[in-house]
Amino acid sequence: MHHFEYRDGKLFAEEVSVTSLAEDYGTPLYIYSAATFRRHFEAFDSAFDGLDHLTCYSVKANSNLSVLKMLGEMGAGMDVVSGGELFRALKAGIDPAKIVYSGVGKRDSEIREALTAGILMFNVESMAELVKINEVAGDMGKTACISIRINPDVDPQTHPYISTGMKKNKFGLDIEHSLEAYKLALELENIEPVGMDCHIGSQLTSIDPFLEALDKLLNFHSKITEMGVNVKYLDLGGGLGIPYDEEEPPHPTEFGKALAEKLSALPLKVILEPGRVIAGNSGVMITEVVYTKSNPTKNFLIVDAGMNDLVRPSLYGSFHRIGEVEQQGRAAKEYDVVGPICESGDFLARDRKLPEVEAGERLVVYSAGAYGFTMASNYNSRPRACELLVDGDTVIVARKRETYDSLIENEL
Ligand SMILES: *Cc1c(COP(=O)(O)O)cnc(C)c1O
């Protein structure tokens, strides 16, 4: 469910006309709906009401400060994967005691920043990282709370680039090495193991892989408890999918119920790290058709948003629903919707049936709220788009459009 709807054939973001936003702020343009963000967060968070839990929104899905602040005000913690994301979360006023830090390549400086802030815990992804965190914490005279990210070797049945919990992936430690890591953690002077962690992938459309991973973790839990680890937190990561097209991902309540059944007897606080399921359908991208062009095999809509603005179709072959901002009622035609970037991989959609569209008209690309702007780049020296947050009839410029000057500001 989202709050981007047609009124008399014209698209609205909550109470605001999208055409007027495109006229005022230009295209390409990201528009986020505050009501949708709130609704998704509430629906997710309340699905785990039966459990002692903390929802740590995954900052990398959409890291705009206005978004982080809004979610923080609703009680969200954050899952960060870099010093930059930690910086953003702190700027947005998130309580450090609600921040967990994941990622395979944490540098000394980033570990130091997290210890200075006083985050809840590090999700540790290798032995070397564990040793490093101990060293940095020792230098600072601090104790670092950690969990080991366990790679349970479960197939999440999603795109290979967003599968993270299989043996061949770079993430976490397999079960045997995790056991060794906890042994080491108990010995290291400046480390306190407080949790267990896993994150098996993204855009999952069934809860079965989550439950398969959970069973392996619970089995492992009894082993490390015997070893003397006092496990307080069970971090199950993110990964719940959303409908981009015809997918029918499980509702969070289904996941919440299944978890409550398996965990009722254990004194564990569950941490969840949803990203896409909160942000994905809370945002759209608006783009204008610059030219139309046809050859004997294809009709092209050449639009002003490229793979630098929204890379998911190019990177993962992802599907994003596309529609007109103002419905003209013309007959359908098959199009490749392509950007201006000098790459044949620069497309938003291929072989897509859309009502016939003319140059100067605008299109809406749905489900662009997660991994949209955060993956944007300046490739082809294109200033990054403007981000707006609409709340009822209020429009907040969440990030202003970059200028040509922003392109060169760090160059000497
Ligand atoms: C990306 C990521 C998430 C969020 O994944 P979604 O599929 O967007 O929910 C959560 N935890 C970790 C460690 C991640 O890397």
UniProtKB/TrEMBL annotation:
Enzyme Commission code(s) on record: 4.1.1.20
GO molecular function, one term: pyridoxal phosphate binding
PROSITE patterns, sorted: ODR_DC_2_2 (PS00879)
Pfam families (UniProt xref): Orn_Arg_deC_N
Active site per UniProt: C342
Reactions catalysed according to its record: meso-2,6-diaminopimelate + H(+) = L-lysine + CO2
The protein's annotated pathway: Amino-acid biosynthesis; L-lysine biosynthesis via DAP pathway; L-lysine from DL-2,6-diaminopimelate: step 1/1
Keywords from the UniProt entry: Amino-acid biosynthesis, Decarboxylase, Lyase, Lysine biosynthesis, Pyridoxal phosphate
Modified residues (N6-(pyridoxal phosphate)lysine): K60
Cofactor(s), by name: pyridoxal 5'-phosphate
Domain Orn/DAP/Arg decarboxylase 2 N-terminal: 35-279
UniProt binding sites for substrate: R276, R312, Y316, E343, Y371
One GO term (biological process): lysine biosynthetic process via diaminopimelate
Binding site for pyridoxal 5'-phosphate: G239, E273, P274, G275, R276, Y371
Primary role: Specifically catalyzes the decarboxylation of meso-diaminopimelate (meso-DAP) to L-lysine.
Subunit structure comment from the entry: Homodimer.
Similarity field: Belongs to the Orn/Lys/Arg decarboxylase class-II family. LysA subfamily.
Protein name as annotated: Diaminopimelate decarboxylase
Upper classification of the organism: Bacteria, Pseudomonadati, Thermodesulfobacteriota, Desulfovibrionia, Desulfovibrionales
